[in-house]
């Protein structure tokens, strides 16, 4: 009997903490992107998309959005991503994208700054955002 009473609770906790997905958003005017271009932008290998200079913004390390983004779009985990940027910085190939504390901050920065690309949990998506790619 306890198994049946715990099952709905466990299911509710699992669904409540699950992220539906991560959406890559960009400032108005940026074109739709494919996964390969997103990967190049967030690894510093591309600084221009469709003739527009772009700047990437990350969610904070350890956040669900960042972990999901790294797995889904970059096929990396936090450790590999940090190591990648440590090497790039050391050899003079740039610095990692700026980190913001929340999805709301990412949305604000993307809307206010031309050429900015960031990502948010799909649940934070609101009308009027320029969705560049959604997985």
Summarize the topology:
Layout lengths: L1 H16 L4 E5 L8 H8 L5 E2 L2 E2 L1 E4 L5 H11 L3 H13 L7 E2 L3 H10 L3 E6 L8 E5 L1
Parallel strand pairs: 4-5, 4-6
Antiparallel strand pairs: 1-6, 1-7, 2-3
Characterise the protein shown here.
The chain has helices spanning 2-17, 35-42, 64-74, 78-90, 103-112; strands spanning 22-26, 48-49, 52-53, 55-58, 98-99, 116-121, 130-134. By secondary structure, the chain is an alpha/beta fold. Mean pLDDT is 88; it is low at 1-19.
Please name the defining characteristics of this protein.
135 residues; five-stranded mixed β-sheet; 5 helices; 7 strands; two-stranded antiparallel sheet
Brief overview, please?
By secondary structure, this protein is α/β, with parallel strands linked by helices. It is 43% helix and 19% strand.
How much of the sequence is in beta strands? 15-25%
Shape: globular
Record the strand order, biggest sheet: 5-4-6-1-7
The major beta sheet can be summarized as: 5 strands, mixed
Count of extended strands: 7
Identify low-pLDDT runs: 1-19
Structural class: alpha/beta
Q: Give me the strand/helix succession.
A: HEHEEEHHEHEE
Distance between the termini: 39 Å
Helix content: 40-55%
Helices, by number, come to: 5
Rg, Cα atoms, Å:
17 Å
pLDDT average, as an integer?
88
């Amino acid at each position: 009997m306890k198994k049946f009473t715990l099952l709905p609770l466990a299911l509710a906790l699992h669904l409540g903490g699950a992220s539906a997905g991560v959406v890559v958003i960009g400032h108005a005017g940026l074109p739709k992107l494919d996964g390969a271009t997103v990967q190049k932008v967030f690894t510093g290998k591309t600084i221009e998309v469709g003739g527009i200079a772009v700047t990437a913004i990350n969610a904070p390390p350890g956040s669900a959005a960042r972990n999901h983004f790294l797995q889904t779009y970059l096929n990396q985990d936090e450790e590999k991503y940090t190591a990648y940027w440590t090497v790039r910085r050391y050899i003079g190939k740039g610095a990692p994208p700026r980190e913001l504390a929340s999805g709301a901050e990412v949305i604000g920065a993307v809307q206010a700054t031309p050429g900015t690309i960031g990502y948010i949990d799909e649940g934070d998506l609101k009308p009027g955002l320029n969705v560049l790619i959604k997985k």
